[in-house]
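Record 1 of the preview.
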Amino acid sequence: MEQISVLLVEDNAALRAMSQAMLAAAGYRVHVAADADEALSRLDREPPAALVTDINLGAGADGFDLARRARMTDPGLPVVYVSARCAHRFPSDGVSRSEFVAKPIAPWELLQALGRALESRQ
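->
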């Protein structure tokens, strides 16, 4: 069975490593990026089956911008947003048919949200 590829975008190195390990342990093939520019470059080279992105990515585009730009290329791309502070912005700024997980992340919450997002594509 082929692994489902996920692009994980997180500017915090420790959280990126933890989330990558969690997703990999669940059987996903995980590619990582530290910011929106790196993520967009990866999206062009290796389109993933899903995008998991932090919302606050430091300087430059945020996770909302990243998801909108990614959906321009792949309108059905499953998206999961992760944030400690932006839950209030998700309903108005998040792309349609996406999921939101609040930090700190419980592994089962992220995996369930990703599963729902992937199901929405089918």
